[in-house]
Write a structure and sequence with these properties.
The complex is a heterodimer of chains A (about 900) and B (about 280). Chain A is of the alpha/beta class and about 900 residues long. Chain A is built from 27 helices and 29 strands. Chain B has 2 domains: about 250 residues, Alpha-Beta Plaits (2-Layer Sandwich); about 30 residues. Chain B is globular, with a radius of gyration of 22 Å. Classes of the chains: A alpha/beta (about 900), B alpha+beta (about 280).
């Protein structure tokens, strides 16, 4: 989550769900929390019962809106404009939390004189390299000080691969790279916030155009509603009050998704709501342990604990650390985290003599994320594929392309509870129906393996608020069902056995791996405790470590993921703690264990004022105890325990010591919350509004219609709708958006086979307003066909006033709502919404844009077989796109 | 014994060796988020089958009603006026409208007509004051079905037995909370001793009504003096019962049974008399 990482230093929710009860105002945006996080939503209800304002900003009136004190409509894909309107309101009405902004944000930093904003360059920031469709980030830096983004840049630079800025460095730039903070401050800053190139003034200028009138033009949100939301936020922020934001994939699944989160970060920094009880930004993750799967990542560009994956140019550990490690803040100990990781993986084999086995690690040379891998399958470059806990044949955009890619593999392993669409596509899929694939031509060898469910295995989940919770095994897995842990452990053992006598250097990594865990029972299930203990790490004495502060870069400690260090402190599995809430404080530190170091609210130094006193009695959380000369409070302080508020770094200080006693964002190079991101994001230091890749609406702010550095794969398999004003644009006149329902789980593998869930939402349907229904002759309970340039799908019709009609820039605009759970398998079946979408993704995190697109809608069911291809070709012809055979 | 007395709940509870405090549900619709966890938990615990894959196109309600195999049912009521209101604050707030959700269930009436009409003794009043069908005794006659003033109890197509909420009798006997209340994430469904629930509900109603938007809120079936003598399961509603599809003034359908029998008895006696007189007259 580089949106949060670039702003605050860590890519995780800044708060926890139980803390929402303390909020005086909660804005839920890009999230349907009541439907998709019903259990966590109890804390929103608790806040509402205590009198908090609960605002739901959403294109639809959902079950969350029904619980909110205000529902505010917004056209899909325009949230930056809305949030920009709030920033504008705060700045023009002088409502920011002045002391907080001056002390804890980078508002005073002076930016490089070469920086140019989007208003100067008609939708581009300075540094755009036309031929590469990417930015050279040099002009976004602080003047004479080059800072690395804490989590973001390393992800960003790795993510963007060869998009990295490559211009030769001037002497001044070279000097800037070597320069350190001076007594905790950048070389050039203006504490009065008046300098025309200081962040605060740039911010004011950037958001000057985001007036309530402009917001209404772009978002279709009545201007008085925008003002009411902005006023509610301002009135509920400050010393005495705090406001929180909740978001989920309604924000991330856009070609500017990361910048949505950045925009909210700016609002929360201006209002002083980060690091304080009842404040923060809660990133609600899509399902169990998604947070865990980025902490201990299934991502190509990260190692455990957000350590960047080495790149080809990193020839040895020294080069890698030099290139990747910032000079200030906690990340200056990355060498200890990295070498301890290598010790956990390679044990005795990792030593200074073997360069810590660094050369066993794969290197990245570009973008190896999901979509390039899928394109690689189509080209025949990628030969094999594991599908685990996922159903790309239903859940990925332009699913047809995914199915065709999987049909071009040598082998495919699918581990699931049921024979899902991703295992059955070779004989049961829209491509088989239309004749684009024939079962006898699919050469992929598919291994369908039965998976154990969560009741049949033990282990930990890391939930949305970084909380590790242990689940115990209830029953033994049936038949051949096995856990993921069992599968990978035994697969690894078998491969290692085969390679035991290999002399090939390429097999060294597997041979030298530590791969022994205690196993349990007849099926030899690895003991998940042993794995979690290895993740926690140990010291020379073999005892479990209690904190990552003990990790050393000399090979004397081993740790599988530094941020999880402490979960096994004193040889106790803290993830399994279940002390009832009634027997401890409301923070409940003895329920499970949260990274880092069991902190529940991150950056909580900011809950005290610069002098270390709580901002107010009402919002008391962590404070400086002058008598004991230590930080203390309700939570584990997120600060060096004995660093006094008045600490000023000496000349030449590095690492933690370079940050002063008033810098709560200890992973940032300057210890500040970033209103302006000089590094860490590849598409801009400030969020700015662009239209989605496919939108019937022209961008009213700039000539640039969409994010100039978004990633696209234009081909006959993945054509894009013409932009507004281009010939054929009117062929797809409606806005479409996709979402989930309470009753089903993501791509449906876990719910469409369960009768009790399926009967609650038994069929694929679309939601349309009465006005659109009248315009297209749709009948409630009847059928509709939804058409994009990729395909057409059919859905039952639910006509409802919960889908508002929008007036955008004077023109009526209709929205089609599409829940995406269905596919051809299971008890409850239907067409897949993801078949409609194109692949067009955010350049920072490569997440697809499936929350805002365009389409056409017709009454009645879709044609079958070749007639379906003919219908789509007719649309393609009219839109000026290549037809499919 | 007069038939009318058959609905006396207290006496029957008291016949148990170890009578318990009367248990019930307080369903606070202001807290219901419509997640249907109650429906699913109920079916899982009570091993009830799915009712089939029917898309109703009626808001998000695809189970439609309480029946022999759906013992908790969440009703969805959409009332939206998109942008069609005026400009003042009150109207702006209400402009987006509302989407009411209410988890319905058997009311476990104090005067339960289903129990009155059951000829086999399958329907009983338990030691918890709840009304339960003993499926192994039920002969499927179906008298109870039209007797229920709420349309709750129903005959299952599969085995012909009558079915409805038991307030998880099997869980109660083990001191456990009924499955629906246990699964509810927002405490919209609250389980407990009826006296305590009623007190809690009174306080809650006062708080809800203090909000200008919810002046019409009321407790439904909370009292002792309505047509069913109060419900073991009762509700906090934001609008009139009929908005949620509930009868506004339910009456135990056997209320007039005693009187009817008396009238019928008198009529019969009169008829006998008339017949006798006629016969006597004919002999003449």
């Amino acid at each position: 989550m580089p949106g949060l990482g670039a702003s605050f230093g860590r890519g995780g929710a800044t708060t926890f769900q139980q803390d929402l009860q303390n909020a005086d105002c909660i804005v839920i945006m890009g999230s349907n929390m009541a439907e998709n996080h019903p259990v966590g939503f109890q804390w929103v209800m608790e806040a509402r019962e205590r009198g908090a304002e609960v605002i739901h900003v959403d294109p639809r009136f959902t079950r969350t809106s029904a619980m909110a004190t205000q529902h505010v409509r917004i056209r899909p894909g325009t949230d930056i404009a809305f949030l920009g309107g709030i920033i504008n309101y705060i700045l023009t009405h002088e409502r920011w939390f002045d002391e907080y902004v001056k002390a804890y944000t980078n508002a005073s930093a002076i930016i490089d004189e070469r920086f140019r904003d989007t208003d100067d360059l008609d939708g581009l920031f300075s540094g755009f390299v036309e031929e590469k469709d990417s930015y050279d980030l040099a002009s976004w830096q602080y003047e004479d000080l080059s800072l690395k983004g804490s989590a973001g840049r390393r992800m960003g630079s790795a993510a963007s691969g060869n998009k990295e800025a490559t211009h030769p460095l001037s002497p001044r730039e070279q000097a800037a790279q070597k320069r350190l903070l001076e007594h905790g401050e950048p070389p050039h800053y203006d504490p009065t916030l008046q300098h025309p190139r200081c962040v605060f003034q740039l911010l004011k200028k950037h958001y000057a155009r985001y007036t309530p009138e402009m917001v209404e033009r772009i978002c279709g949100t009545p201007r008085e509603q925008l003002v009411r939301v902005a006023e509610a936020l301002c009135a509920n922020s400050g010393r005495e009050r705090t406001s929180a934001f909740c978001y989920s994939v309604g924000w991330t699944q856009h070609t500017v998704g990361v910048q949505y989160i950045r925009a909210a970060s700016i609002v929360q920094l201006l209002l002083g709501n980060i690091g304080r009880p009842g404040g923060g930004i809660l990133a609600l993750r899509g399902h169990a342990s998604i947070q865990g799967s980025t902490d201990i990542p299934t991502l190509y560009e990260l190692l455990p604990g957000y350590i960047p994956m080495p790149q080809a140019e990193h020839v040895d550990m020294k080069t890698f650390l030099e290139k990747s490690m910032p000079k200030h803040g906690l990340w200056t100990h990355m060498d200890a985290y990295m070498i301890s990781l290598m010790k956990a993986w390679f044990g005795e084999n990792a030593s200074a003599a073997s360069d810590w086995c660094f050369n066993y690690l794969p290197r990245i040379t570009g973008n190896h994320s999901t979509f390039p891998s899928i394109m690689g399958m189509l080209l025949g470059d990628v030969k094999g594929f594991f599908v685990v806990g996922e159903n790309p044949a239903v859940g990925s955009p332009n699913s047809s392309l995914h199915r065709r890619a999987m049909a071009n593999l040598d082998w495919l392993v699918v581990r699931d509870f049921f024979e899902i669409e991703s295992a059955a596509f070779w004989y049961d899929s829209p491509e088989i129906e239309t004749g684009k694939l024939r079962a006898q031509d699919v050469k992929t060898e598919i291994f369908f393996l039965p998976a154990a469910d969560h009741l049949q295995k033990q282990g930990s989940f890391t939930n949305t608020q970084r909380l590790l919770q242990w689940h115990h095994q209830a029953v033994e897995p049936e038949g051949d069902c096995r856990s993921e842990l069992w599968f990978y452990y035994h697969l690894g053992k078998r491969i290692r056995e085969k390679l035991r006598d290999s002399a090939e250097p390429r097999d060294g990594a597997l041979r030298d791996l530590t791969w022994e865990y205690t196993t349990l029972g007849e099926i030899e299930e690895p003991d998940a405790h042993a794995v979690l203990r290895e993740i926690n790490g140990w010291g020379m004495d073999g005892k479990a470590l209690g904190t990552y502060l003990k990790l050393k870069p000399d090979g004397s400690t081993a740790c599988g993921c530094w941020i999880y260090c402490g979960v096994f402190e004193n040889e106790q599995n803290h993830a399994a703690r279940r002390k009832p809430g009634s027997e401890q404080s409301w923070v409940a530190p003895e329920w499970g264990w949260a990274w880092p170091m069991n902190r529940r609210i991150l950056y909580n130094r900011a809950s005290a004022d610069p002098s270390g006193e709580p901002w107010s009695e009402r919002k008391r959380y962590v404070w400086w105890d002058a008598e004991k000369r230590t930080w203390s409070g309700e939570d584990v302080p997120d600060f060096i325990a004995d660093k006094a508020p008045d600490y000023v770094p000496p000349d030449g200080a590095k690492g933690d010591a370079a940050l002063d006693g008033q810098s709560p964002f200890i992973l940032q190079g300057d210890g500040k919350g970033w209103l302006f991101a000089p590094d860490g994001l590849v598409d801009g230091p400030f969020p700015t509004h662009y239209e989605p890749e496919e939108s019937p609406i022209r961008n009213v702010l700039y000539e640039r219609q969409s994010n100039p550095v978004r990633e696209r794969w234009e081909s006959a398999n993945n054509p894009y709708h013409p932009a507004p004003g281009k010939p054929g644009a009117a062929v797809f006149p409606y806005v479409s958006t996709s979402y989930r329902l309470t009753e089903h789980h993501t791509a449906g593998g876990m719910s469409r086979n369960v009768p009790h869930l399926s009967e609650l939402q038994p069929e694929m349907f679309c939601e349309v307003s009465p006005e659109l229904a009248a315009e297209r002759g749709l009948e409630n309970g009847g059928w509709a066909t939804i058409v994009s340039a990729r395909t057409a799908i059919e859905a039952r019709v639910l006509v409802t006033e919960r889908i508002p009609d929008y007036v955008i820039d004077g023109a009526p605009t209709h929205v089609v709502g599409l829940p995406y759970h269905w596919g051809s398998r299971g008890i409850s079946t239907g067409d897949s919404v993801n078949d409609l979408w194109s692949i067009s993704v955010d350049p920072n995190v490569h997440i697809q844009e499936t929350k805002a697109s365009s389409c056409d809608v017709r009454a009645g069911r879709r044609p079958r077989g070749k007639a379906l291809t003919a219908l789509v070709n007719d649309y393609r012809r009219r839109a000026g796109l290549p037809v499919e055979e | 014994m007069e038939l009318f007395d058959a609905t006396g709940a207290d006496r029957e509870t008291a016949t148990y060796d170890e009578p318990q405090a009367r248990k019930g549900f307080f369903t606070d619709t202001t807290l219901c988020i419509g997640c249907k966890a109650c429906e699913v938990a109920c079916k899982e615990w009570n091993q009830l089958p799915s009712d089939g894959m029917t898309f109703t196109a009626q808001s998000y309600d695809n189970t439609g009603e309480l029946n022999g195999t759906t013992w908790r049912h969440v009703a969805f009521v959409e009332e939206l006026r998109n942008g069609k209101g005026g400009g003042d604050e009150q109207v702006l707030r209400a402009q987006a409208g509302r989407w009411l959700m209410e988890s319905d269930v058997c009311k476990h009436c104090t005067h339960a007509a289903c129990l009155d009409v059951c000829p086999t003794g399958s329907l009983i009043r338990t030691e918890f004051g709840t009304v339960v069908v003993q499926e192994d005794v039920c002969n499927g006659c179906g008298y109870c079905v039209p007797a229920c003033p709420f349309g709750v109890i129903d005959k299952r197509q599969t085995d012909g037995h009558a079915g409805k909420c038991t307030l998880c009798y099997d869980r109660l006997t083990d001191g456990e909370t009924p499955a629906c209340a246990k699964a509810c994430p927002t405490e919209s469904i609250q389980f407990g001793d009826l006296d305590e629930l009623r007190a809690r509900a009174d306080a809650r109603l006062e708080k809800v009504r203090a909000n200008a938007h919810f002046r019409d809120a009321s407790l439904y079936l909370r009292g002792d003096d309505d047509g069913i003598g109060g419900g073991g399961a009762f509700f906090l509603l934001l609008d009139k019962p009929e908005v949620y599809g509930l009868p506004p003034d339910p009456v135990v359908t056997t209320r007039d049974l005693g009187a009817m029998w008396r009238v019928a008895g008198k009529a019969a006696l009169a008829l006998v008399g008339v017949t006798a007189l006629a016969a006597l007259g004919a002999r003449k």
